[in-house]
Specification:
The chain contains eight helices and 15 strands. The protein is an alpha+beta fold. It folds into two domains: 3-198, 2-Layer Sandwich (Fructose-1,6-Bisphosphatase, Chain A, domain 1), CATH 3.30.540; 209-331, D-Maltodextrin-Binding Protein, domain 2, CATH 3.40.190. An eight-stranded mixed β-sheet has the order 4-3-5-6-7-8-9-10, sandwiched between helices. It has a five-stranded mixed β-sheet with strand order 12-11-13-15-14, sandwiched between helices. A two-stranded antiparallel sheet has the order 1-2. A hairpin with a 4-residue loop joins strand 8 and strand 9 (182-188). Helix 1 (8-14) packs antiparallel against helix 2, helix 2 (25-44) packs antiparallel against helix 3 (68-82) and helix 5 packs across helix 8. The chain starts with 7 loop residues before the first helix and ends with a helix. It binds 6-O-phosphono-alpha-D-fructofuranose (P6P). Residues 120-121, 123, 213, 246-248, 274-275 line the site of 6-O-phosphono-alpha-D-fructofuranose.
């Protein structure tokens, strides 16, 4: 099986020409993420056997209880990214502010910033449900040689040069785009090698899976309530299925393969939504559009939103083109 599949390393080399800016730096950056993914995967896969389950006793800037594996994953990705002379700054869900990386010559001449959710869905770790890492890569916009600034991180999602996720599921996959389509790589744990298993991934234009936490139904905007009722209506020519894992990366990955829509709307409990624009919605939206899907906040394209703060939240409607359009048609009735 593995003989017929290109490795991630070979794929990166073959597609080097696509990285319009990079003389290999972006390739090296993807390689550092590959390494970190293997290390985190190794820990995630044996979480029940070592003292890495449960809460760390700390909370992040969102006031959310940090899991031990959250912090472990954060530390692994930080060291993998910092050790390569490519990144000048990193923003992480687990850090209040961004991290400046001066480089080994302390001259701030690295070109890329990375924004990352080291372990999304981490509340699922203790119950053995899949979790994920999401990352987003930009070129800095402030002058080389100067310390990175907040505006390097607050760029629109349309400016991303690469984005991807790792899903630590029944198998571990790394899925990413550099703006030339979406490709998925599956880890062979015996060899420690990622193989190209899902070339040129495409979001089905239609689907019948909707992913939303219906427990919050009474708190949803009326447009979302109407869309849910539409999906559940008897007269539907195609019965919908409700699938919600509680781990956005896993729900998204399944929907991209089978067709579907993931919605995390505003609610009275989450007035701006729950998902973070910079290191969850933007990278997933980039991948979505590259695969032919659609990602909005219910009204506006996610990649066009001008960020104003590092950890800002937005409502998120993401998935098959025609399903998102349908959901938006209900939202538009209640602007
Ligand atoms: P709720 C995980 O914390 C996450 O950010 C997403 O991965 C997931 O889809 C969502 O939150 C789950 O949130 O409020 O439905 O439990």
């Amino acid at each position: 099986m593995d003989k017929s599949h290109k490795t991630l390393g070979e794929f990166i080399i073959d597609n080097q020409k696509h990285f319009k800016y990079s003389s290999g730096e972006l390739s090296s950056l993807i390689n550092s993420i590959r390494l970190a993914a293997k290390i985190v995967n190794h820990k995630v896969n044996k979480a029940g056997l070592i003292d890495i389950l449960g809460a760390s006793g700390d909370t992040n800037i969102q006031g959310e209880e940090q899991q031990k594996l959250d912090i472990y994953a954060h530390d692994v990705f930080m060291s993998a990214l910092i050790n390569r002379e490519i990144v000048c700054g990193i923003a992480s869900e687990e850090e209040d502010d961004f991290i400046t990386v001066k480089g080994k010559h302390h001259n701030n001449d690295n070109k890329y910033v990375v924004l990352i959710d080291p372990l999304d869905g981490s509340s699922n770790i203790d119950v053995n449900v899949s979790v994920g890492t999401v990352f987003s890569i930009y070129r800095r916009i402030t002058p080389l040689g100067m310390p990175v600034k907040i505006e390097d991180f607050l760029q629109k999602g349309s400016e991303q040069v690469a984005a991807g996720y790792i899903v630590y599921g029944t198998s571990t996959m790394l899925v990413y785009t550099t703006g030339y389509g979406v490709n998925g790589f599956t880890l062979n744990p015996a060899l420690g090698t990622f193989y190209l298993s899902h070339p040129n991934m495409e979001f089905p234009k239609d689907g019948n899976i909707f992913s939303i936490n219906e427990g919050n139904y009474s708190h949803f905007p009326q447009g979302v309530k109407d869309y849910i009722k539409y999906c559940q209506a008897e007269e539907n020519d195609r019965p919908y299925s409700f699938r919600y894992i509680g781990s956005m990366v896993s729900d998204f990955h399944r929907n991209m393969i089978k067709g579907g829509i993931y919605i995390y709307p505003t609610s009275s409990k989450s007035p701006k939504g729950k998902l973070r624009l910079l290191y969850e919605c933007n990278p997933i939206a980039f991948i979505t559009e590259q695969a032919g899907g659609k990602a909005t906040d219910g009204f506006n394209r996610i990649l066009d939103i001008q960020p104003t703060e590092l950890h800002q939240r937005v409502p998120f409607f993401c998935g098959s083109l025609n399903m998102v359009k349908k959901a938006e048609s209900f939202m538009k009735k209640y602007p």
